[in-house]
Amino acid sequence: MQETVADSAKGATANEVSPRGGERRKLLATPRASGGWRLGDWPAAWLLIAPVIVLFGIAVVFPLIDTIRLSFFDIKGLAKPKYIGIGNYLKLFADPAFRNTLTTTLIFTLATTAISVSLGWLLAMLCAFAPRRTLVFRVMIFAAFGISEAVAGYMWIGIFRPDAGGLLNTVIGLFSPGFSHPWLGDPNTALWALIVAASWGGVGLPLMLCFASVQAIPRTVLEAAYLDGARPGQIMASIMMPLSLPGVRVAIFINLLGALRAFDIIYIITGGGPVRATETVGYFMYRESMTQFKLGYGAAATVVLLAAVLIISVPAIIQRTAGAR
After folding, report:
1. For each of the chain's 325 residues, which pLDDT tens digit applies?
2. What is the largest CA-CA distance in the chain?
């Protein structure tokens, strides 16, 4: 006679046949915690995740807490730290250079995310019409995402060189002989040149995420649209793009965080210049802490950057995990 899971959860006994003598013995049902976990499994579970918790505490939690602590002190070089409360934060938001940095960070983050996600989304829609024929193309685009930002930065320096040796000036010179422009030396164009370079490396991930979302669309939906006489453009606009929005949202979230934390490509291509025109909060933090030796001031900038990351990430994480509860 078979027993249901509900009966066993109430403490009913189950019969088990021993493989040796065929004798039957009774086993008491083991009490379970909510969610299907056995009460005796919790110590083993904590033991397994303990190394991860310890490493996370050492590598993430402790530096975070210490950075917040340092932001309340005035630390200049090797001088004795002086507690000043929120003085660093008041000075930070009164600093014209930092306010300009906030504006630059906002422009860089929004523009880089918009360009990379839009291009990746569009390319994913086009590749979805011929998945096999575009395989090599998709691999090439995604390979740019895996290239080191330092390597990509030196490549873009060659493209934006101010003399005739620069690739961009050479191409424009074919239509306008003698053309030469210092793309990275002009404050009006340096930020946009940096945005183009950063966006180039960020197209691959949205492409793959959106392409995977399109491939998850049932074939019957697309076949029904073809039978109804829908054209490829109509199918892309009315079916593929709306149903690929989950991948787009993930791509926006990841690219936003990546743009906020951008440092390597800025350090390599412009170094925050000219005249701090391409300096983001992340680079401002580096400059004040590592070159000006204002550790407390730089730590306050780090906390501001952390707050911006949390404002973006926490709502997105809550939304993604709400359906799994």
Report:
1. 334 334 443 444 444 444 444 444 444 444 444 455 566 678 888 888 989 999 999 998 999 999 999 999 998 877 788 999 999 999 999 999 999 999 999 999 999 999 999 999 999 999 988 888 989 999 999 988 888 888 999 999 999 998 877 899 899 988 888 888 899 999 999 999 999 999 999 999 999 999 999 988 888 888 898 888 888 888 888 889 999 998 999 999 899 988 988 899 999 999 998 989 999 999 999 999 888 888 899 999 999 988 888 888 887 777 767 655 5
2. 98
Nearest Cα to Cα of residue 256 among 88, 92, 108: 108
Q: Which residues, in sequence order, are CB contacts of 240 under 8 Å at separation 6+?
A: 125, 128, 214, 217
Residue 73 has φ and ψ, to the nearest 5°, of -120, 150
Question: What single letter denotes the amino acid at residue 174?
Answer: L
- Write out the two tokens for 139: 């691999």
* Residue 287 CB neighbours (<10 A): 19
Residue spans per domain, the chain: 1-30, 89-322
Q: Two tokens at 325?
A: 């509860």
Q: Distance between CA 31 and CA 225 in Å, rounded? A: 53
CB burial of residue 95 (10 Å; 0-12, 13-18, 19+)? middle
Helix, strand, or coil (residue 263): coil
What distance in Å separates the CA atoms of residue 13 and residue 30, rounded to the nearest whole number? 10
CATH architecture assignment, domain 89-322: Orthogonal Bundle (1.10)
The 3-state DSSP class for residue 15 equals strand
9's tokens: 């959860």
- The pTM of this model reads 0.80
Q: Which amino acid is at 81?
A: P
